[in-house]
Specification:
It is a single chain. The protein has seven helices and seven strands. It has a single domain, classed as NAD(P)-binding Rossmann-like Domain (Rossmann fold). By secondary structure, the protein is of the alpha/beta class. The protein binds NADP nicotinamide-adenine-dinucleotide phosphate. NADP nicotinamide-adenine-dinucleotide phosphate (NAP) binds next to α1. This is Glucose 1-dehydrogenase. Keywords: Oxidoreductase. One of its GO terms (molecular function) is oxidoreductase activity, acting on the CH-OH group of donors, NAD or NADP as acceptor.
Length: 239
Amino acid sequence: MRLAGKVAIVTGGTRGLGRAIAEAYVKEGCQVVCAAREAGPDGAGDLAFRQVDVRDPASVRALMRTVYDAYGRLDLLVANAGVSRPGPSAELAPQDWAEVIDTNLNGTFLCAREAVPYLEKDGGGRIVTMSSALATRVARGSAAYASSKAAIEMFTRVAAVEFAPRGITVNCLSPGFIDEGMGRELARNERLWSHYGGKISVGRAGGADDVARAALFLAVEDSAYVNGHVLEVNGGLSW
Ligand SMILES: NC(=O)c1ccc[n+]([C@@H]2O[C@H](COP(=O)([O-])OP(=O)(O)OC[C@H]3O[C@@H](n4cnc5c(N)ncnc54)[C@H](OP(=O)(O)O)[C@@H]3O)[C@@H](O)[C@H]2O)c1
């Protein structure tokens, strides 16, 4: 029970990787609030749910305040909510570009910004952001998504330095081919798999549990001296 007594918010915790991370934290005794625009067909299961649109500053501010008021503390933020709008840059609709930057990058900034005053109240806390292997690897059609993730990695490094004196560490997870959530189609697409599969050194796509275990490491005492780090969870991917 390495997170007993702690309170976490996982944005995008209703499905996919966020859901797996939330469940991993709960198993360690954490009170987790999953936050997204919709609860989803089965809600967040046994997990607490709060509505949020991470693109909206007022909505994000209200999320942090209501969670703090309800549970009396906030120790962990996993800024996981994200979207992808693939397409060649010359044809990508400006609103698709804006949607990705707004959700992924601006949403991460807003959640971190609004969580800091609560995280620092009870002796500090942790922020985990979400990048992607595409932040540092070139793939056609990934411009909006990859740009948003590259910026999240840099935001992580700057925020880590800025928030450290307030007792808050900021680290980033960078998943690769994960057979879950938005990666499921890719991991099961034979054409893509024949192209990229051989580039994963451990020879398999990742599972949500691979990402959740890494997210757990960044939340527990073992990573107390890790700050501003981008942890790749991609089975050793080279291309
Ligand atoms: N799965 C992969 O292979 C993979 C690989 C690398 C990185 N990642 C990253 O990991 C994170 C999770 O991905 P996933 O695969 O689990 O995605 P997913 O299954 O599509 O889930 C995305 C989550 O984000 C929430 N969300 C989206 N827009 C939101 C908004 N404006 N406000 C609040 N919540 C919002 C969604 O809920 P609502 O739609 O109800 O709001 C949902 O809970 C993302 O940041 C993604 O870029 C995933």
